[in-house]
Automatic annotation (TrEMBL):
<dbReference type="InterPro" id="IPR001214">
    <property type="entry name" value="SET_dom"/>
</dbReference>
<protein>
    <submittedName>
        <fullName>SET domain-containing protein</fullName>
    </submittedName>
</protein>
<dbReference type="InterPro" id="IPR046341">
    <property type="entry name" value="SET_dom_sf"/>
</dbReference>
<keyword id="KW-0732">Signal</keyword>
<dbReference type="InterPro" id="IPR011990">
    <property type="entry name" value="TPR-like_helical_dom_sf"/>
</dbReference>
<feature type="region of interest" description="Disordered">
    <location>
        <begin position="165"/>
        <end position="189"/>
    </location>
</feature>
<dbReference type="InterPro" id="IPR053185">
    <property type="entry name" value="SET_domain_protein"/>
</dbReference>
<dbReference type="Pfam" id="PF00856">
    <property type="entry name" value="SET"/>
</dbReference>
<feature type="domain" description="SET">
    <location>
        <begin position="102"/>
        <end position="259"/>
    </location>
</feature>
Length: 410
């Protein structure tokens, strides 16, 4: 109908400066999108009662044909999201690393529902999947936004997509009888979309704000405590890439981690059960206790060493700090955590520079840079850091050349 019920007109009831000139409630499916809500293609649907409007912004059929719905405030949409939309359909930044057609199939996996199984060999460092979000939903709402309103925002966010059944058909922990966190029990239970979001979305940060991001292809990748792949979110293209962390053989399941890096088994189980609502059945969690114990001991040591490196560096004991850092990297490698803990290179880069080992300082500084621009187009902060690192790298390279010249002439 061209005149939906008043609840659909929340925006008109509480006009926001960005959309001040919206005066009529048009049916989003049939109306020609007025320029007033450009670059979104649907009229924003907003909560009618809260003091600040919380709205669904939908851009139909882009990116990747399925479209994107974002639940946020008009301020956030115009400040952080609108400027990004022009880049959504940009080609993947490293086409030579992207595997096409996709090197995996979604199949049933005993004890885990569905999962991604490699159909051909995948070498380390390849992009297995680039997936564009279908829904981003803010993590926190103010107290005056009612739960029923959040449910409605989520329902509309899904319904306005090109193929709502793609998101509504994703796995749901409630439906499969998984453990549901206490605060969600009782009442009328979870709505379909609340359940889909809790079961399948990944935390992302856009413009400094946390969002739950729903990526329908990524959502089929299961968790493992020793994963063979890792995910990387690009704030610039709003896409998530699955990268292989090591060589993966055909018929192997491709797995990622849902938890923070380097957690012990107890901590992982707590996080997976409380946050994600399932009991982990990965190969490490189902391994004999002695194997699990050895892994926990290494992970505890990793954490101890991380603190130790910083402590020694603060005391000015640089050589000792480097020794601890090298031991740390060996353990991280043994635990298969190198790709997950890639942000740990800055401290050794500085330490090696301090003790005059320029080659090693350069090696680690290049790793720091790779962490920022090796997995996608960096956001504004990343660009600034890359500029700074360019200067540092040029300086170390110059110092190495000078040193070599001095050594050559003596
Ligand atoms: C994001 S989905 C992953 C795909 C899902 N298996 C499916 O069938 O679509 C998350 C859900 O997968 C299952 N899952 C993922 N990793 C698992 C694991 N290591 N052990 C057991 N179940 C797992 C859990 O049911 C969890 O709620």
């Amino acid at each position: 109908s061209p005149n939906p019920p008043p609840a659909q007109c929340g925006l008109d009831a509480a006009p926001h400066p960005v959309y001040r000139n919206l005066t009529t409630c048009l049916d989003s499916s049939t109306a020609t999108p007025p320029s007033s809500w450009h670059p979104w293609t649907h009229k924003p649907y907003c909560t009618p009662s809260s003091s600040t409007p919380w709205c669904v912004f939908t851009r139909a059929s882009s990116p990747a044909a399925h479209g994107l719905s974002v639940i946020t405030t008009p301020d956030e949409a115009s400040a952080a999201l609108n400027p990004l939309l022009h880049a959504l359909d940009a080609p993947f930044f490293a086409p030579e690393k992207l595997m096409l057609p996709r090197p995996y199939e979604v199949r049933d996996i005993p004890g885990k529902g569905k999962g991604a199984i490699a159909t051909r060999r995948i070498e380390k460092g390849r992009a297995v999947l680039v997936d564009y979000a279908s829904i981003f939903a803010v993590v926190e709402y103010p107290a005056d936004v009612m739960r029923e309103e959040v449910r409605e925002l989520l329902r509309v966010a899904a319904a306005q997509l090109g193929e709502p059944e793609e998101v509504e058909g994703l796995s749901r922990r409630g439906r499969r009888g998984g453990r549901v966190a206490e605060e969600e029990e009782g009442e009328e239970g979870m709505s379909v979309m609340e359940d889909v979001m809790l079961t399948n979305s990944f935390g992302t940060v856009i413009g400094g704000k946390e969002y739950m991001g729903l990526f329908t292809d990524l959502a089929r990748f299961n968790h493992a405590c020793e994963p063979n792949a890792f995910i990387h979110f690009s704030e610039t293209t709003l896409s998530m890439t699955v990268w292989s962390a090591r060589d993966i053989e055909p018929e192997e399941e491709i797995t990622i981690t849902y938890t923070g890096a380097g957690l012990t088994s107890k901590e992982r189980h707590k996080s997976l059960e409380n946050v994600w609502g399932f009991k982990c059945q990965c190969s490490l969690c189902t391994a004999p206790p002695v194997v699990l114990k050895a892994s926990d001991t290494r992970r505890e040591e990793i954490r101890r060493l991380q603190d130790k490196v910083v402590e020694l560096a603060q005391q000015g004991r640089f050589s000792k700090a480097i020794e601890a850092a090298e031991r740390l990297f060996t353990l991280v490698d043994e635990e298969g955590l190198t790709e997950q803990m890639g942000d740990m290179y800055e401290v050794p880069a500085r330490l090696y520079y301090h003790v005059g080992n320029l080659e090693k300082a350069l090696e680690y500084t290049l790793k720091v840079r790779h962490e920022i621009d090796g997995y996608g187009v960096p956001g504004t902060l990343g660009e600034q850091k890359i500029e700074m690192l360019k200067g540092v790298i040029a300086r170390i390279e110059r110092e190495i050349t000078n040193k070599q010249e001095r050594e050559g002439s003596s």
